[in-house]
Specification:
heterodimer, A: mainly beta, seven-stranded mixed beta sheet, four-stranded antiparallel beta sheet, 0% helix, B: mainly beta, six-stranded mixed beta sheet, globular
């Protein structure tokens, strides 16, 4: 099973709202990723968790707050977002992010976020 | 500096024909991995094929093959016998190390492929 699930599929929120995106995998992967993707652009890395610890933060504004409650779950908490934050948010996982051995990433279907 | 370069913003191919999508990369690492992903309009990124830098042979997965030319730093994707369902955006990606010791994946700008009936 190479499935990564994400909820919700679509989310519309106002600039004063607080919401969360959820991601789950049951492949035993120890690395999980959040990406932001604008239309017709490649995914942009936001955060990497390795063994449940935040290991990369690509200078993401603090209105995005990641959380990894356990090795299968990854959340992205959203607060006071701006309209320019509207995008497709993709979660991914891979077996490892610390080993020199290379592993492919598996992506979830994404959450299409609209900030009004 | 751009590390993954895809020079074809859009490509057309006739159904049942083969098509090659170009990807060049830049790295100073000796050990690295190259990937191709397909992204249909639905948004999900689908892993297609992987090539390791030390792999002797070009990777193949069904109708997908990777034309890996290490000296030229190119990793082109070849899709044989194109199908209408192959119409999508295709991204080339590379796994690279960071100063923190964590590896991350970087993506090219993508090529939009349209298969014509």
């Amino acid at each position: 099973d190479t499935e990564v699930t994400q909820t919700p599929k679509h989310l519309v929120m106002g600039m004063t709202n607080k919401k969360s995106l959820k991601c789950e995998q049951h492949m035993g992967h120890r690395a999980m990723y959040w990406y932001k993707q604008k239309a017709k652009k490649p995914p942009e890395l936001m955060f990497v968790y390795s063994y449940e610890k935040l290991s990369i933060n690509e200078s993401v504004p603090s209105r995005f707050s990641p959380e990894c409650p356990n090795s299968s779950l990854l959340n992205l908490h959203l607060h006071a977002l701006q309209p320019e934050d509207s995008a497709l948010y993709l979660c991914a996982s891979s077996q490892d992010s610390l080993s020199v051995a290379t592993y492919e990433q598996y992506f979830g279907p994404g959450t299409r976020l609209t900030v009004t | 500096a751009q590390k993954i370069t895809q020079t074809q913003p859009g490509m057309f191919v006739q159904e049942k024909e083969a098509v090659t999508l170009d990807c060049t990369y830049d790295t100073s690492d000796q050990s690295y991995g190259l990937f191709w992903y397909k992204q249909p309009s639905s948004g999900e990124m689908i892993f297609l094929i992987y090539q390791g830098s030390y792999d002797e042979q070009n990777a193949t997965e069904g109708r997908y093959s990777l034309n890996f030319q290490k000296a030229r730093k190119s990793a082109n994707l070849v899709i044989s016998a194109s199908q209408l369902g192959d119409s999508a955006m295709y991204f080339c990606a590379m796994r690279e190390g960071t100063t923190s010791g964590t590896y991350k994946y970087i993506f090219g700008t993508g090529t939009r492929l349209k298969v014509l009936a």
